[in-house]
């Protein structure tokens, strides 16, 4: 098969020790879901300071649904994400600040605004079979001189072979690393291994491979270790597992586990444990947990950020959230279809009312 041409190499290839893992902390982006997007500037500064002192190389900051996510559909931010990114950049002494952008939610203008206040890593996220929509965003990020990372969300929805071809599309567009993103926490051990191995085989010489795990089935850390063993060089975590759904692989556990395995992360483990316990834990109104709804998300393959939307619909219409999520998984809805959750709740309510009527 003829492969598409690759973009010119950038000068970002030195950022990962060849034998180790570069850890990106997403407490201030994916963790924004658990905070209902209400991070304050002071809180962002405190978290960045703690992570930076612990040696975390990359810290992601944005609305939970990425740049431009502050809206009626996804939830309004308490503080402008650009202001939060600027504060993070100002606070960090060695870490670089990353942003996430979902084409269709955020725009190239949002990316330029984030770069304008100092963000230097652009993570462009698409559904796992729609990598082609990311081309202009990678081009814009490369033109700005940003490091570029691709996110293939809901990776369980594509076979390893299909996912590898989607990664090839992102690399051709300018991605310097492509992530297998287990957005639903649905990948079970070998499933994660197979997808990471397929990407490494497909793009390994031209780009790095990363892994972003969720905890719905309590496999975020195990899958991250297996990803590293298959050749992944970048892994995501979040302090206290803060993230959508059941949360992300906890940064502090990832660092401790990789240290036990003798795999360098460059992160001070006691420092990052203090960051989780003393800085983030007191700020969090609700820790992510593998409750019934979160487990259903994992088994039904439901996008993690749908959890809070389903819980709100459950409160409003009196239908259990886990039933809404099960039906959403059966329908195959993807990120950006949050509004369909209301339709599902109403349908379940009608079904329940019909079943309760005397025959």
TrEMBL record:
EC numbers on record: 4.1.3.39
CDD domains: DRE_TIM_HOA
Domain of life: Bacteria
Gene3D superfamilies listed in its UniProt record: 1.10.8.60, Aldolase class I
Family stated for the protein in its record: Belongs to the 4-hydroxy-2-oxovalerate aldolase family.
Domain Pyruvate carboxyltransferase: 21-273
Site (Transition state stabilizer): 29
Positions of substrate binding: 29-30, 183, 212, 303
Annotated source species: Pedococcus aerophilus
Entries under SUPFAM superfamilies matching the protein: Aldolase (SSF51569), post-HMGL domain-like (SSF89000)
Sorted UniProt keywords: Aromatic hydrocarbons catabolism, Lyase, Manganese, Metal-binding
Protein name: 4-hydroxy-2-oxovalerate aldolase
Catalytically driven reaction(s): (S)-4-hydroxy-2-oxohexanoate = propanal + pyruvate; (S)-4-hydroxy-2-oxopentanoate = acetaldehyde + pyruvate
InterPro entries xrefs: 2-IPM_HCS-like (IPR050073), 4OH_2_O-val_aldolase (IPR017629), Aldolase_TIM (IPR013785), DmpG_comm (IPR012425), DRE_TIM_HOA (IPR035685), PYR_CT (IPR000891)
Catalytic residues, chain numbering: 33 (proton acceptor)
Enzyme class label: lyase
Binding-site positions, Mn(2+): 30, 212, 214
Signal sequence region: none
